[in-house]
Design goal:
alpha+beta, YefM-like fold
Length: 106
């Protein structure tokens, strides 16, 4: 996703009247090719248009930030940690048992 700076923010502003003039397809092409568009009505921002790809990237960045915050919160607490070897011993398994297991992580 392209970051907006002060110069291209001004270029990204479009009046809502362009939709009323039947320019929706052109606006959607602009979003796809050039990035974000800020729709204004009566000189007030009403909505921001972004491509589905940029939206997905934004959501993933948000989720990553939440996970990082949670990880930092957990690391900041003084708690005892269990080693990998201790977990294996508690479950009565060894490294060779794990080598033949297929795991899909999302």
């Amino acid at each position: 996703m392209n970051a907006l700076n002060s110069i291209n923010i001004l270029d990204s502003i479009i009046p809502i009247s362009r939709f009323n003039k039947g320019e929706a397809n052109r606006i959607f092409t602009e979003v796809k090719n050039d990035g974000i568009r800020i729709v204004v009505k009566n000189n007030t921002p009403e909505c921001v248009l972004i491509s589905p790809k940029d939206y997905q990237a934004l959501i993933e960045q948000y989720e990553d930030a939440l996970l990082l915050t949670e990880a930092n919160n957990r690391l900041s607490k003084n708690v005892g940690y269990i080693s990998h070897d201790d977990v294996l011993n508690d479950l009565n398994i060894n490294e060779q048992d794990l080598e033949n297991i297929d795991i899909e992580v999302e």
